[in-house]
Amino acid sequence: RQHEAPRRVKRAWVIPPISVSENHKRIPHLLVQIKSDKQQPGGVIYSIKGPGVDEEPLGIFSIDKFSGKVFLNAMLDREENDRYRVRMFLGAHSPSLGPQPDPDPPTLHPQLRAFALDLGGVTLEDPTDLEIIVVDQNDNRPLFRQDVFTGRVVEGAEPGTCVMTVDATDADDPDTDNAALRYSILEQGAAGMFSINATTGEICTARPGLDREIMGVYNLTVQVADMSGDGLTTTAVAVIYLEDINDNPPEFTKEEFSMEVDEQAAGVDVGKVFVHDKDLAGSSSWLAKFTILEGDPEGAFAIRTDPHTNDGVLSVVKPLDHEVRDRFELTVSVQNERPLEPSTPASPRALATVRVRVRDVNEAPVFRENPRRISVLEGTPPGTAITTFTASDPDTHQIQTLSYALLYDPADWLQLDPHAGTVRTKRELLHPSAFLQGGWYIALVLARDDAEPPLSATGTLSIEILEVNDHAPQLQQPAGVLCGRPGRGGTLLLGATDDDRPPHGAPFHFQLSPQHPQLARNWSIARFNGEVTHAVLAVLAELPEGPYSLPLLLRDSGTPPREQQQLLNVSVCHCGRDGTCLDGVLAAATAGAGITLGALMIILGSTILLLGDRRRALRKGLLQRSRDDMRDNILNYDEQGGGEEDQDAYDINQLRHPELFSTRAKPPLRRDAPLSSGTPLAPRKLPSSPSDIEDFINEGLEAADSDPSVPPYDTALIYDYEGSGSVASPLSSIVSSLTDEDQDYDYLSEWGPRFRRLADLYG
Which segments of 166-230 are extended strands (E)? Predict the structure, then answer.
């Protein structure tokens, strides 16, 4: 459309905006004709510059330089550029000089500049802007933001529950109907369960009755149109998934199920019961839970859910016995792990009957009493029947025979009847034995049936070997030495042993023989500090030196008690002032029959004092704390309770230099000595030097062997063996410590006040 020529207002050009439709197809198209009122002789030259002319996009606009007509040379696209602005100039200005500076502020749109010049190139008018507006046409379809929209809604949702929103855009002018969009659902199936808001595109439920088990997914075809629904259109897909709720209880596929299982089987699956649930598989609304309601009072069965198939798996948890019960009829129920929705119609719980038949199989024999415990007296003669150890066959519906055999008999003490199961002694049962464990003898018996294949069972036979009191106690040391003066030194420690085990052994009872009541005038026996195996022999009246033979009666605590009379050979020595045997050390050390409390302490003290030869520091301490030569003195510890002031020395120079002492030698001890003091032998010549001590002892031995007044069995007694059950610790433990430079002597403090000085020195 051709526009009117511009009007001059206050010597300035005023050109109204020029509108042109986009996509104009008549090219070139006259937009406007510009005229200057300052016509000059020879005419005016018009020119324009700016975007669309000499700037990108080039060549869209042009002007006839003589007539001032402005032409459109190409189709315009409003979506690319919705307006153009041309600036026009009048005055002395040459087009060859290029565009003039723009005094106005920049605009948001490209500028077209128009120039009016005379033929001499002089600008006739001030520059002015020519604005060209591109008018929109509905040339763009609305577009959805995505091709497929996805939404979710729970089944059974109420009408009006919104699910999702679909949205679209349009590139046309939003202020025109070209971009006025309207939404609609073209297709959703016959039910018409959903509706859409035409303006916003929000999709909501329109009707009740959404049921995932009937239709779980809805595919809607939605459309958007511009021109308020009468223009261009575009479609998309809206996919709506129904979320499952627990609105369907599980149901058994049938009312009865039958299964079989072998007896004695435990922890095995018997079979399955099958169910169906319309809810979503794998969801909590689908998962089933089974319960055994009736038919299993003993709890022999269990039922669990197979998580993959949702079926019930019946298993045996306790062994079944065909002979006791061969059939079971179980009532089983099923329901969901998750409760049904409140809106779901109420229905009874699903029930099914499961029949289980127990198959009969061969079972192993059973020892009803296992282990079998019996008691047998020791020394029971061979061939004695001690018990009958048999098993029973659980297969009462099958005729089978059991046989027996000894599976384990380590001492070969037993014999077993293979048919009757009678156990007899094969040899005398001895006690003690390496085959006994705490007084019990363990044997294993095998029972086997004659089925194919045969089955067997093992029974344990525990035989307690009862102790019989068949031994009397024996003196540990049948001889000893003591001082013949009442009081200090006039005691002898006695000990006894018994081959029987408790309760047929200790405590022992010591007493003088009742057949010799005269012994009670000079001797007494009392228990030693509460010990059950020892007693103390004491002198009641002063006795002359010499050997004595005392008949003692020893009795144990067995049932019935065993007693035995034994001879105790006692040598009464020459007593010192403090009750020690002045000449009894040699006899105790060599003849060594019994050992008194004092002699035991003498030996221990002598051995400990020998350590002073190897440890000079100890010897120095001993010399500093005592004026006596401790190496030549043995302290008397024949009784408890004394202190350091009781250490009267016994000079062992009697053995080193016997010629210096007038003490006469004592004869060797004889087992047949009279009950009172015997007649001493004639004194022999004492050895003159330590090297003659051996000859001195040998002469005494020869004299004893040649004595016609003693039986021929009399010999010198050997006392290097202490015997079992000695109350004294072995001296070897002390001697062995001599080789250890780091020996710990703290134990000396536990020996009582008599060893306190040594404990202080060694500690």
Answer: 168-169, 182-187, 194-196, 202-205, 217-225
Q: Which helix (H) or strand (E) holds 72?
A: strand 69-72
Would you say the C-alpha torsion 608, 610, 611, 617 has a positive or negative sign?
positive
> Could you give the angle at the alpha carbon of 226 between the alpha carbons of 224 and 230, nearest 5°?
95
Domains of the chain: 13-94+120-135 (2.60.40.60), 143-243 (2.60.40.60), 251-359 (2.60.40.60), 372-466 (2.60.40.60), 474-573 (2.60.40.60)
- Cα dihedral 146→147→151→155 (10° resolution): 170
Whether the predicted pLDDT of 731 surpasses 60: no
Give exposure, 415-430, as e/b (b: 16+ Cβ within 10 Å).
Answer: ebeeeebbbbbbeebe
Q: Name the amino acid, one letter, at 558.
A: G
pLDDT tens, residue by residue, 403-427: 999 999 999 999 999 999 999 999 8
Q: What stretch of H or E contains 696?
A: helix 693-705
The set of residues, in sequence order, having a beta carbon less than 8 Å from that of 336 and lying 6+ positions away, is: 246, 249, 250, 277, 279, 284, 285, 286, 287, 288, 289
The tokens of 55 are what? 């700037």
Which of 482, 512, 749 lies closest to 638, judged by CA? Answer: 482
Instruction: Round to the nearest angstrom and report the end-to-end CA distance of the chain.
Output: 134
CA–CA gap between residue 489 and residue 665 (Å, rounded): 20
Q: Which two tokens stand for residue 266?
A: 């435990």
The secondary structure of the chain in percent helix, strand, coil, rounded to multiples of 5, reads 15, 35, 55
Contacts of 358 (CB under 8 A, 6+ apart): 260, 261, 262, 263, 320, 321, 322, 325, 326, 327, 328
Tell me what pLDDT residue 542 has. Answer: 84
Asked if 604 contacts 726 with a C-beta cutoff of 8 angstroms, the reply is no
The predicted structure's pLDDT at residue 62: 85
Q: Determine the Cα–Cα distance for residues 577 and 226; give it in Å rounded to an integer.
A: 143
